[in-house]
Amino acid sequence: MTEEFEPKIVGFLCNWCSYAGADLAGVSRIQYPPNLRIIRVMCSGRVDPAFILEAFRSGADGVLIAGCHPGDCHYIAGNYKAQRRGILLKKLLEQFGVEPQRLKIEFVSASEGAKFAAVVKEMVETIKKLGPSPLKVQMEGLTYASG
Amino acid sequence: MEQSQKETSRIGVFICHCGINIGGVVNVPEVVEYAKTLPDVVYAEDNLYTCSSDGLNKIKESIAKYNLNRVIVASCTPRTHEPLFRATCEEAGVNKYLFEMANIREHCSWAHMHEHERATEKAKDIVRMAVAKARLLQPQTEPEIDVTPSALVIGGGISGIIAALCLADQRFKVSLVEKEPELGGMLRNLHKLYPTMQDASEGLEHFIQAVKSNKSIDVFTSTVVKEVKGFIGNFKVTLQKGNSETANLDIGTIVVATGATIFEPVGMYGYGEHENVITQLQLERLLKEGQLKKPEKVVMIQCVGSREEKGRTYCSRVCCMTALKNAMFIRELYPETDVYLLYRDLQTYGQHYEHHHREAQEKGIRFIKYAQEKPPEVVAGKNGKLEVNVYHALLGEQIKIESDLVVLSTPLIQHKDAKELSKMLKVPLGSDGFFFEAHVKLRPIEFATDGIYVCGTAHSPKDTAESVSQAFGVASRAAIPMALKRLRTEAITALVDEDLCSGCRICEAVCEYSAIEMQEKEGKQTSKVLEALCKGCGTCGASCPTGAITMRHFTDNQLVAQVRAAPQVAKEVTKHD
C-alpha cells in the first residue's frame, strides 16, 4: 500500500527575523503542515552551502533558508549573501540532478507569522509534486559513511 | 567549570507539557521514552511546567544526581525562556552554553494542533536534533564590556519627555532628539484630554519646562538621527541638525519614542472635496483655538481607514474616546447642537472609559451603528450643508441627516521616516507599520536587539495615559544596563583555525564590521578575529573555502550534526513505492 509522500524539509532560520516569524505563526495558532525541521542560526549569512548539500545528502527532500528582509538584516547584509549563494547553489544542484525548486530562499520578518506558514505550506506542496529527492532515491539501499 | 573536549557528554532531557499547550497535542511520555534511546542521553523526564520553580529544581537535582553535563529543555522558544534555563544550569554548575533548547511549542504543538501523531513525530525529530547539537556543545566564557552611562531618547513627544525625565532622575545623562523645532509632539495639537477633560497644553508645558531646566538632559530640536553604530553599552550615534551641523554621541541605551501621525482620509466621505468634512485632529485644533462656529448638526464617523479588511486592519484605540470627548464638549459649548456618532463598534474599554460612554448617552449624543459593508455616504446637500445617508444597522432603516459638519475619526499611523530609523537601529516594524516589540506579553517595551527600547505611539496607537505608563516603564528598562555599568555579552564570535587558513582574505572582504584583519605568522598570512568588533553573524564562516573559520556555539560540526539528524525518521510514517 502506498501512503502519501510526506517530504522532509530542513529549514535554516535566522534568529532575529525568520525564527521569530515562525514563533509568531505558532503563537497565532496558524496551522501549517508538520514537514519542516528548523535549525536556528544567528544569521542566514551563516548558512554554508556545504550545510545545504549535507542536508540533501542526508535525505532531505527540500531545504529552506529564511532571513530578514532586504535592508533589515540584523548583521547589515548577511541575508544578501545568503541569497547570492543560494542562487548559485541552485545552478549547481541542477547539475547534480536535483530540481532547483527544492531549495528555497525567503525573507520572513518577525511580524510575518502568516507569511512563514504560507511559505512552508507552499513549499510542501511544491515538493510533494516533485516527489522524493532524487539523491535520496539514488542512495536508498546504499550505505554511506556519515562521518 | 571547564570541560575538556574528551569528556563524554551526559545529557539530561526535560520535556515540558506546558499544561495542555504541548501535552494536549504531542504525546509527551512517548517523546520522553524516545529521548532515552538517543546517544549520550542519560536521563529524560517530563514536567507539567519545566519553567516552574518545581521544574527548575528538578533540573538542578538531576544535574547533581545523574552527573549531567549537558541539559536540553524541550518546551517553548529560546527567544523567551532560554535565559531562565541557562541561569538554572549555571546555578547547578553547568556552563550556560552547554544548554540547548528544543522548540516543540511555537514550532510544533501550536502549529499542528489537529495532527497529534505527526506533531509527536516532529517533536521527536526536534529533540533528536537538539541532542545531536548538545553532544558537541562547548562551554564558553562571555567577554565583559563597559556601559556608557548615557541614554539617547528619540522623539520629544510626551513619551520621550517622560522617559528622558525619568532617566535623568536616575542620574543618567540623556540626549533627547526631536525632529520638529518644538518639543511636545502630538499633544501640542490636542485640546482636552479624556477622561479628566484637562487642557492638553497644561501638563505638557510643565513637562517641557522640566526637561529644558534639567542639567542632565541635552535637548536637540530640529534634529534627526543620522547614523547608529555599535551595540548595547557602546553605541556611536551621529545626529544631524539642518543640512550641515552634526554631533557625535557615545550612548549606552536607546529609547525609540518617535510617536505616530494621523491618517489623512483624502477621497473618503468627501474629505478634501467639501471644506466642512474634517478630521478629529482638525476639530481638536478648532476647539483649542475657539474657532468652531456653532453648527446645527454634527456627524462623526468612526473607523475611517481603520479596522479595514486589508491594509490598516488594526483598531486605532483612541478614536472612540476622542469622538465621545469632542462630542460632549460640543454639546457643552452649544447645547442646541445635535451630535450624531456613526460607529461600527464602540470600544470604550476599562474603568473610566465605559463611564464616559454612559455619560455621553445621558448627554444626548445620538449613536447610530453602521455596518462595515454598508458605510455611510456623504454628499453635498442644500445651502452648503452636507447630506449624510446611513443605514441604521439596529433599526434596519436608511436615515438621512442634514449636517453642517462631518468629522472623520481616522487612525494613528506610523511616520513615513520610521522605516529609515528601523533600518538604522536594526529593529523591526510590524505589518501595520508600527515598531515591533520582542514579545507582546513578556517583553512589550523592548526590542529583540539588546539595549534598544520602545514606548508610546511609535509602538502602537495608544492614549496619553498609556503612553506615559510605557515611558516610565521604558526608562526603568533602559536604565538597568547603565546602572550595572558592566555587562556580559554573548560569546558567539568567529574562531579561526590558523593551520587551515590559506590567507585568501575572503572573510576580511565579507565582514561588515571590519572585525577580521590579516596577521603574519611564521611567514604566512592568516586571518585574525578582532573579538570586540565581531558580532557573531557567521558570514565569514560560511564563506571560508578551507573551512578554517567556525562560529562559537554555532560550529560547523554542531550545525552539520543537526542537519544530519533532521531528515531521519523517528518512526517510519513515510513510504513511497
Structure description:
The complex is a heterodimer of chains A (147) and B (577). Chain A has a single domain, classed as Rossmann fold (3-Layer(aba) Sandwich). Helices cover 41% and strands 16% of the residues of chain A. Chain A contains five helices and four strands, in the order βαβαβαβαα. In chain A, strands 2-1-3-4 form a four-stranded parallel sheet, sandwiched between helices. The longest helix of chain A is centred in the middle third of the chain and has 18 residues. Chain A is globular, with a radius of gyration of 15 Å. The N and C termini of chain A lie far apart (34 Å). The C terminus of chain A is likely disordered. Chain B contains 15 helices and 30 strands. In chain B, the strands form ten sheets. A five-stranded parallel sheet of chain B has the order 10-7-6-14-25. In chain B, α1 runs parallel beside α5. The longest helix of chain B has 21 residues. Chains A and B meet through α1, β2, α2 and α3 of A and α4, α5, α14 and α15 of B.
Question: Could you outline the blueprint of secondary structure elements for this entry?
Answer:
The complex is a heterodimer of chains A (147) and B (577).
Chain A: E1 9-14, H1 18-27, E2 36-41, H2 49-57, E3 62-67, H3 78-95, E4 103-107, H4 113-130, H5 134-139
Parallel strand pairs in A: 1-2, 1-3, 3-4
Chain B: E1 11-16, H1 28-36, E2 41-47, H2 53-66, E3 70-75, H3 78-91, E4 99-103, H4 105-109, H5 116-134, E5 144-146, E6 150-154, H6 158-169, E7 173-177, E8 192-193, E9 198-199, H7 200-213, E10 217-220, E11 223-231, E12 234-241, E13 245-251, E14 253-256, E15 261-262, E16 277-279, H8 280-288, E17 297-301, H9 319-333, E18 338-343, H10 350-362, E19 366-369, E20 377-380, E21 386-392, E22 397-403, E23 405-408, E24 412-413, H11 418-425, E25 452-454, H12 464-484, E26 486-488, E27 494-496, H13 506-510, E28 516-521, E29 524-529, H14 539-543, E30 549-551, H15 556-565
Parallel strand pairs in B: 1-2, 1-3, 3-4, 6-7, 6-14, 7-10, 14-25, 16-23, 17-18, 17-23, 18-19
Antiparallel strand pairs in B: 5-26, 8-9, 11-12, 12-13, 15-24, 20-21, 21-22, 27-30, 28-29
